[in-house]
Specification:
The chain has 315 residues and is α/β, with parallel strands linked by helices. It has 2 domains: 18-59 and 144-307, Rossmann fold (3-Layer(aba) Sandwich), CATH 3.40.50; 62-133. The protein has helices at 18-31, 62-77, 85-91, 95-98, 105-114, 120-133, 149-160, 173-184, 223-231, 247-254, 289-297, 304-307; strands spanning 45-48, 164-172, 191-194, 198-203, 206-211, 238-241, 262-267, 300-303. The strands form 2 sheets. The chain has a 6-stranded parallel beta sheet with strand order 3-2-1-6-7-8, with helices on both faces. Helix 2 crosses helix 5 (105-114) and helix 6 packs across helix 8. The chain is globular and about 65 Å long.
């Protein structure tokens, strides 16, 4: 869903507060010819977390919801899977159990059961079918219709000023690349996410890539700056996140950057229209350290309840 910007107000879903003014002022400063902070086109790199920054991550990240629905489908074929402890936790919605361990050990077990061994084409078809049929348990709408309208406007405004927008997410890169261009107007090659080894073989039907969980790289926390370096090769000048999983990415973007830089944190404060959490969350998205550091770094903290007129497109 590409959102058009207007000269009169490029961010119409944002209330006219300090956050909106800081965004507009920074973009004007770095894109106005003759400005001492003018950034050449090639250096206009903006990075965005996805879950909790561009769309909700409650009651669980959308890829986890996909994996659990895939798990239910697999159990119909392999009933013995229902006896696996982590499968039982997943079916019970015990996200805390799935996210235990440094590499989300339980969730990785579920992903191994539902993702690995599939060809990339089979995986794409499964994701597309899920997006066409699944509905968010609170909103009753397709998951890919639940993007934050104010952030869509920001993506479009940056694109109109020759920024290259990247998704830098802890989610699986293959999952995000299925829908990212249609939903955000971001091409699949501009996604940095969690990855694992993919194998190649030439079958009678043609070339095939098959997913594994070997050599897993979790693109979260300190992994995000590493992923940016490996896959983008330029230091961002704009970073937007929402949790401590984005803390290192915010630091990497703004601390001692030789170019003008801007950090933004989406703070979930609206329990009526979306969700309210920071230190205590039933899903992912814990926000403590980055929120504490924000004032000293000059990062803009967006209060969803106060700063956004609308959360979703139909609000």
């Amino acid at each position: 869903m590409a959102i058009a910007t207007t000269a009169a107000d490029p961010l119409p879903s944002w209330n006219d507060g300090a956050g909106k003014q800081a965004i507009l002022a920074f973009i004007a400063r770095v894109t106005t010819a003759g400005s001492p902070d003018f950034l050449p086109w090639a250096e206009r790199i903006a990075v965005f977390d996805n879950d909790g920054c561009l769309w909700p991550e409650n009651p669980m990240p959308f890829q986890a919801a996909f994996a659990i629905d895939e798990l239910k489908r697999r159990i119909l074929v392999e009933p013995a899977l229902a006896a696996v402890p982590m499968v039982q936790a997943a079916l019970a919605g015990d996200l805390g159990k799935l996210l235990e361990g440094d590499h989300f050990d339980g969730l990785m077990q579920i992903l191994a059961l539902t993702h690995t061994g599939m060809t990339t084409d089979e995986f794409r078809v499964a994701v597309e079918a899920w997006l066409a049929s699944a509905r968010h348990p609170r909103y009753g709408r397709p998951y890919d219709e639940l993007t934050y309208l104010p952030m869509q406007e920001l993506l479009s405004y940056l694109r109109a000023h020759d920024f290259k927008n990247f998704i830098v997410s802890g989610g699986g890169v293959d999952f995000i690349r299925v829908w990212v261009e249609r939903v955000y107007g971001i091409p699949p090659e501009q996604v940095v996410g969690s990855t694992a080894r993919t194998t190649y073989e030439l079958r009678d039907s043609g070339p095939v890539l098959t997913k594994t969980l070997d050599y897993l790289f979790v693109n979260d926390n300190a992994g995000k700056p590493v992923g940016i370096h490996q896959f983008i090769g330029r230091r961002p000048v704009i970073c937007c996140g929402n949790s401590d999983g984005d803390h290192a990415m915010l630091q990497y973007t703004t601390i001692n950057n030789p170019r003008p830089s801007f950090g933004l944190i989406v703070h979930h404060t609206d329990a009526e229209r979306e969700y309210a959490y920071d230190a205590n969350t039933k899903s992912t998205g814990k926000l403590v350290a980055a929120l504490r550091e924000a004032p000293t770094r000059g990062w803009v903290v967006v209060d969803m309840k106060q700063d956004w007129k609308a959360i979703f497109e139909t609000d």
